[in-house]
Automatic annotation (TrEMBL):
The chain crosses the membrane at residues 42-66, 103-124, 136-159, 225-247, 276-296, 316-336, 357-376, 396-416, 423-441, 453-472, 484-509. The lineage of its organism: Bacteria, Bacillati, Actinomycetota, Actinomycetes, Propionibacteriales. This is Aminobenzoyl-glutamate transporter. It comes from Marmoricola endophyticus. GO terms for molecular function: secondary active p-aminobenzoyl-glutamate transmembrane transporter activity. InterPro entries: AbgT.
Length: 520
């Protein structure tokens, strides 16, 4: 809706006035509950202590299980015993060094950092939201939002203000642009047609959890790639429809008369930047063509010994390929714009990217220890086997189990907004449980993506919620938490429902989730 198509003064109807206080109260409760939780680093050590006590009690009671289909009996081991202490001390470094996402995320970030810090990703986002007809601006901003996750947290900083500028440029409410951009990033965070650093993190955690049941389990960072591509298109379409038929009809979309967004950046690129972007994209296209040409022959060194792509060097080394592709585009762009002046600037940019990831790497240390303890105690085996037996004995349909998992993880996500932290807590139980119900770990990971994203745009526990609110207040000074939540809530609900339906259709039709990855 154009800014001239509604009354100049924001007027709230009775329904809005009744809903907004409820949203504010609900968000306040969530915020207080979330603030009571410790930092994720300490949360995992607290969970490890709880696990140690539980393992001691269960081991003392002689708790054990026999895996479905036979096999050796699995006894719970006491983490508080002498053997448990010896394990915790002797394997601490190994646990951290061999934590599956560790090396992968470092390699990916080195390449992405070059593309992001040279300005390539920001330039690509500007072009993506500015060079579309006015009728397509909502879809463009939403779709770019789902793709922007390759820039990790920088996606919020770059795209959210650009969303407001893009909408204002075509005569629509910049408030709506802020909301669309933020929600597309937050509630579509795990749906990207381009492999992202998060894909590497999630795959590593999923693989570690899957090895509780199958020690040879291998989960690739592109294991959900096909599903992610379809999800990004669907979510952009849902955002477009809800924005058009729900949000655009709200009477309170006008910006303050004195609103000034002149310091939020610009949608335009200089001639030098445009030329650099063209050459960087051309470099990417040529690199992809060369990669395809190398992979196509059945005797390709990037294929497995039997000529397939399953467990091939292409898939097991996809993190390196992604890093190289982003690194190349960033080097070309930076060399032509001057952000890279000499060869030594490239490793410096990589180091800056690693520095930005330092908090995540610190968290990885705690997560790696917790997962190792979980594996040692076999508490996860007991919970998974007993839960699977309960579900099977009561003939609970797997579809119902999927819905229960979605609801459980969705609630947890409101309080634990770190996707890697939440998945590290849930995966050791949920992945083995569903594997015992004949559900592949990659399918469980796809479920997690939906739950991890849906409520993110609504919860004030996310630091980016506060940041988006700051951008919103540039256009309306009186906006508060309830204001932003009331805008994002319809979008988040519709996106979660549509994404869930897509998953069940995908699962029902048996469509592969990614290269060589069956959904069931």
């Amino acid at each position: 809706m154009s800014r001239t198509d509604h009354d100049p003064a924001p007027v709230q109807d009775a329904t809005t006035q009744e809903r907004l206080p409820f949203v504010v109260r609900a968000m306040a409760v969530v915020e207080r509950a979330g603030n009571a939780l410790p930092h994720p680093f300490w949360l995992f050590w607290i969970l490890a202590l709880v696990l140690a006590v539980v393992s001691a009690v269960m081991a003392g009671a002689g708790v054990s299980v026999v895996p479905p289909g036979g096999g050796d009996r699995i006894d719970v081991q006491n983490l508080l015993s002498g053997d448990g202490l010896a394990m915790a001390v002797s394997t601490a470094i190994t646990n951290f060094a061999e934590f599956p996402p560790m090396a992968t995320i470092v390699v990916v970030i080195m390449g992405v950092a070059v593309a992001e810090r040279t300005g390539f990703l920001a330039a690509a986002m500007k072009v993506g939201v500015s060079r579309v007809p006015a009728a397509w601006v909502v879809f463009a901003v939403a779709f770019v939002g789902t793709m922007s996750h390759v820039a990790s947290a920088a996606a919020y900083i770059i795209l959210v203000p650009l969303g407001g500028l893009a909408f204002r440029a075509v005569g629509r409410s910049p408030i709506l642009g802020i909301v669309v951009a933020y929600t597309a990033i937050a509630s579509g965070y795990d749906a990207s047609p381009i492999p992202t650093p998060n894909d590497a993190i999630f795959a590593g955690i999923t693989q570690a959890a899957a090895r509780i049941v199958d020690e040879d389990a291998l989960v690739s960072p592109v294991s959900n790639w096909f599903f992610n591509i379809a999800s990004s298109v669907l979510l952009a379409a849902v955002i477009t429809l809800v924005t058009r038929f729900v949000l655009a009809k709200r009477p309170d979309l006008d910006a303050d008369p004195d609103a000034d967004d002149s310091d939020l950046g610009s949608l335009t690129l200089s001639n030098r930047e445009r030329r650099a972007l063209r050459w960087a994209v051309l470099t990417l296209v040529v690199a992809l063509v060369v990669l395809v040409a190398v992979v196509v022959p059945g005797s390709s060194p990037l294929r497995a010994a039997d000529g397939s792509l399953d467990e091939s060097p292409l898939l097991t080394g996809v993190a390196m390929i992604v890093a190289v592709l982003f690194g190349l585009t960033g080097i070309v762009y930076g060399s032509m714009t001057g952000t890279i002046e000499k060869a030594g600037d490239v490793p410096a940019l990589m180091a800056q990217g690693i520095k930005q990831m330092a908090p995540v790497l610190v968290l990885f240390f705690a997560i790696a220890q917790f997962l190792a303890y979980f594996d040692y105690t076999h508490v996860g085996d007991v919970i998974s086997v007993r839960a699977a037996e309960l579900l099977q004995n009561n003939d609970v349909p797997v579809v119902v189990v999927f819905l229960l998992v979605l609801v459980l993880l969705g609630v947890v996500n409101i309080l634990v907004t770190s996707g890697s932290a939440m998945w590290a807590i849930a995966a050791p139980v949920i992945v083995p449980l569903l594997m015992l119900l004949s559900v592949p770990p990659e399918t469980t990971q796809a479920l997690f993506r939906i739950a991890d994203s849906g409520s993110t745009a609504v919860t004030p526990m996310s630091p980016y919620f506060v940041m988006a609110l700051g951008f919103l207040q540039r256009y309306r000074k009186s906006a508060g938490i309830g204001t932003l939540a009331s805008y994002t809530l319809p979008l988040a609900i519709a996106m979660t429902v549509a994404w869930t339906v897509l998953f069940f259709v995908w699962w029902g039709l048996g469509i592969p989730l990614g290269p060589g990855v069956s959904v069931r």
